[in-house]
Design brief:
Helices cover about 55% and strands about 10% of the residues. It has 22 helices and 10 strands.
C-alpha cells in the first residue's frame, strides 16, 4: 500500500472519541455562541468526522487546531453549520400565525400606513430553506392580491450558505408541501416532476435572501421592521447569546411591531408582550417609547430573578428544590415542614404548610413549585397549571415550572402541549433525567417513535447523575433500576 493510500485509509477510519467531541462542542460554542447539548452527540460526532475527512486531515486534533488558529476557520464554521443546523420546515408551519397575519396584522399595518409610500417590512430571521418567507409572500398575495409586492417587502436571512442556496433554488417535495391545499399549489407553485414543485415567479420576486447571523447588528437598519418571524431559532443559542439576539430583535422592530416565534422559544417579558391568542405565539415590542437597553431586567437571566421579601431567589436546578433560599428562620422552617409532608406523600398537608409560608412570603418560588407538584400528585391539574404560570410570570426561565406543566398536560392527554413545555424544560436543563424521561413518554404517546427513542437514550445517559430528590419529585415511586429498565424496554435493549 502506498503512503497516499495509507493516509486515505487512516482518514476514513477517524472516529472522534467522546472527549474529542466534547472539546469540539465547547470550541464551536465559544466561536459561534450556538449551543448543542449532549443529546446532539451523534450529530456532532458525524459532523466532526465528515469535516476531518473533507479537509484531508489525519486526526481530530489537527482539525481542532485548524479551527483555533487558521484564517480559514470562518469558512470552516460555515461548513459545520451546514451539517449541524436542522432544516426541517414546511410551508405555513404553525397555521394559526399565518391566519393572524392575513386577518389582523397585515390589515392593521396597511391601515396605519395608508397615505404614505411606506411598505410593510417583514424580516424572516433564520429562514432556513425558504419555506417560511415564501409562505409570508403567499399570505401577502392572499391578503392584497397581485399588488402585494407594492405593499409588502420581505427580507429573509440565514447563517447557512447551503440553506440559502436551496431557498433561492425554490424547489420542494411532499414534506415541505404537506399543509398546502390543491388550490394554493395551483396558484403559487409550478410542477417540475411527479412530486417536485418550484415556487411561482410572483412569489419568488417578493423575497430577498441574504446571509447573516442574528448575533450581528446588520439588521439594525435605519427603517425598522414591522414584523419579524424568528421561529425555532433561539433554541440553538446559549443563554447569553439569546439575550443579545432578543435585544437585537427588539431594537430592529418598529414601536409596537410584531414578533412571531416558535412554540419552544422563551421570550423576555421586559422586551416583548404577548399579542392575541397565547397559542399563536405572537408578541409586540414592549414599552415602545423606550429603547430596550433602558428597560428593566436587561441582559442576563440572573438579573431577571425576582427579589422577594426575604431576598429569596428561585431554585435554578431540579435538585435544589429541596433547599429553601429564604433567609428568615421561620420561612426556612415552614418550607422544610412542607417539604417533609411532601416527601411522606401527605400532599394536602404539604399544600397547607406551603400556603402558610406563601401568606407571609407570596413570591417564594420554591414553595410555589412544591405546592404545584403537590397539586399535580392530587390530580388537581388546573391548580397545578395556575401555580406554574404564576411562577413563570416572575421567572420566565424557571425550568421546574415548564417541567411540571409538561407532566401536568401529559396527564391530561394534551400531549402536543406537554411536548412544547417539556422541550422548553429541556432547553433550560439539557442534562436532566426527569425532563428527558417525560419527553420520551410524551413523544411515545404522540407516536413520534424516533424522537421518543432519542429522549429515552438521553434519559438513560443522565440517570446516574440524577439526584434522589429529582427522581422522587418527578418520577413517582419508581426506583432507578425500574426507570432504567423501562427506558431500555422502549429502546429495544
Amino acid at each position: 500500500m502506498s503512503q497516499t493510500q495509507r493516509h486515505e485509509a487512516k482518514r476514513q477510519q477517524v472516529q472522534p472519541t467522546a472527549q474529542e467531541v466534547e472539546t469540539f462542542r465547547e470550541l464551536f460554542q465559544r466561536l459561534t455562541s450556538l449551543h448543542f447539548g449532549q443529546w446532539r452527540f451523534e450529530s456532532l460526532q458525524r459532523a466532526l468526522a465528515a469535516r476531518v475527512s473533507a479537509r484531508g486531515l489525519d486526526s481530530v486534533q489537527q482539525y481542532i487546531r485548524l479551527l483555533e488558529h487558521s484564517a480559514a476557520s470562518s469558512e470552516e464554521l460555515s461548513e459545520i453549520l451546514n451539517l449541524l443546523t436542522v432544516n426541517e420546515t414546511y410551508f405555513f408551519r404553525y397555521p394559526a400565525q399565518f391566519d393572524l397575519l392575513r386577518q389582523s396584522l397585515f390589515p392593521t399595518l396597511i391601515s396605519q400606513q395608508r397615505g404614505t409610500d411606506k411598505r410593510i417590512r417583514v424580516w424572516s430571521a433564520g429562514c432556513s430553506t425558504g419555506e417560511e418567507p415564501y409562505s409570508i409572500a403567499m399570505a401577502a398575495l392572499d391578503a392584497f392580491g397581485p399588488g402585494a409586492s407594492l405593499l409588502v417587502e420581505i427580507v429573509a436571512t440565514d447563517v447557512s450558505s447551503d440553506a440559502l442556496r436551496r431557498a433561492r433554488q425554490a424547489e420542494y417535495g411532499p414534506k415541505s408541501l404537506r399543509l398546502l391545499d390543491d388550490a394554493s399549489r395551483a396558484k403559487y407553485l409550478r410542477r417540475i416532476s411527479q412530486d417536485r414543485f418550484t415556487v411561482a415567479g410572483p412569489v419568488r420576486a417578493m423575497v430577498q435572501f441574504r446571509q447573516a447571523s442574528l448575533l450581528d447588528d446588520v439588521q439594525r437598519v435605519s427603517v425598522p421592521w414591522d414584523i419579524i418571524f424568528c421561529r425555532n431559532v433561539l433554541i440553538y443559542f446559549t443563554r447569553e447569546a439569546t439575550d443579545k439576539v432578543q435585544d437585537n430583535l427588539a431594537r430592529s422592530l418598529s414601536p409596537g411591531g410584531y414578533l412571531l416565534v416558535g412554540h419552544s422559544e422563551i421570550i423576555r417579558p421586559d422586551l416583548f408582550i404577548p399579542f392575541g391568542d397565547p397559542d399563536s405565539f405572537v408578541y409586540r415590542r414592549a414599552d415602545a417609547g423606550r429603547q430596550p437597553s433602558e428597560q428593566r431586567g436587561h441582559c442576563h437571566v440572573s438579573d431577571r430573578r425576582p427579589q422577594t421579601e426575604t431576598d429569596a431567589k428561585p431554585a435554578s436546578t431540579l435538585s435544589s428544590l429541596g433547599r429553601s433560599p429564604a433567609q428568615a428562620d421561620d420561612c426556612q422552617q415552614m418550607f422544610e415542614a412542607a417539604l417533609d409532608y411532601f416527601d411522606r406523600k401527605q400532599y394536602v398537608r404539604a399544600c397547607q404548610k406551603a400556603e402558610q409560608l406563601l401568606q407571609h412570603f407570596p413570591r417564594h418560588l420554591p414553595a410555589c413549585l412544591l405546592r404545584a407538584n403537590a397539586y399535580l400528585h392530587q390530580g388537581e391539574h388546573e391548580r397545578c397549571a395556575r401555580e406554574c404560570q404564576f411562577v413563570l410570570q416572575l421567572d420566565p426561565f424557571n425550568a421546574e415550572a415548564y417541567l411540571l406543566l409538561g407532566i401536568n398536560f401529559k396527564s391530561l392527554s394534551k400531549v402536543s402541549l406537554a411536548i412544547e413545555y417539556l422541550k422548553k424544560a429541556a432547553y433550560l436543563l439539557p442534562d436532566s433525567f426527569s425532563v428527558q424521561f417525560h419527553l420520551g413518554e410524551a413523544y411515545r404517546a404522540r407516536g413520534l417513535h424516533s424522537e421518543a427513542r432519542r429522549a429515552y437514550r438521553n434519559a438513560v445517559a443522565f440517570l446516574a447523575a440524577a439526584e434522589d430528590r429529582e427522581i422522587r419529585n418527578y418520577c413517582g415511586a419508581f426506583s432507578r433500576s425500574t426507570l432504567e429498565a423501562f427506558c431500555q424496554r422502549w429502546l429495544g435493549n
